[in-house]
Amino acid sequence: MKYLDFIDNSKISKICFGTWNLSPSTKKFTSPNTTSPSQSIDLLKFALDKGINFFDTADIYGEGIGEKIIGKAFKNLRKDIIVITKSGVLNEKNDTNFSKKYIEKKIKMSLLNLNTDYLDGYQFHNITSESNIESSYNLLTKLKKKGKIRSIGFSSRDPIDAYKILKKYNFDFLQVSFSIFDQRLLYSKILELKKKKKFILFTRSPFNSGYLLKKKSNKALIRPKLQSSINHFVKNNKKDIHYKNNSLAESALKFCISFPEISSIIIGMATKLEITRNINTMYDNLYLEQNWKKKLIKVYKIFNGN
Question: Could you tell me the pTM of the whole model?
């Protein structure tokens, strides 16, 4: 496992365990969950044993249950892990609340759920450049000085919009989508800005929430138009997408790993086989790999008419 710098000389694994799928669905927020709480805890411990020390969650995942599962799994191993959580999203319609009062309340709940007295990272969940976060941002900076939060970040659905937020605020890290099918990050100027502001970059959804692999366990999550578009992209570019004899999953993750600017890739994993496969996926910057990477960037441009 490769490890990169995080906050205060700590290290994070290149693969981060995203825990959305380990949390049950609720009336407010649907999940692709297929595991019981005990199975989820077992998977988390297995991942740590295999070298993954970085875990991402949110207060809306199972409405707190996702955080509690992490808290139980690592009850006596807090110093061995890096855990970041987020809040502000109220439901799967993406209604939000980023008020100071609400965020302060949710931080207290996250600390209790995760069974900890500090958070390695706290994020505004899916903010946009239009979100009013001024007072809450000031709250987080104060909590960071007190040691309750080690770092402050945000997640974004739109890399272009995330760039505007990064220009305005001094965040420690950003979490944004990136995959062979969604390469908007490369055209957002974020990588250029990163050289100046020195924030940490995390990406998520290397498999487009399972759509890239045609793996959707919950019918409520299926989006036919997105699935059709991804199927068309994969079918038309199959020879370029696959690296040598690697599977689609291995190739898709290899592409994300190939970017040194990305400190960690957040992946939802539901089996020990998936955890092992993802850990074993490598990019060695070989000549063949470099050419393959260039082709993938090119076919994406062509597919999107650029």
Answer: 0.95
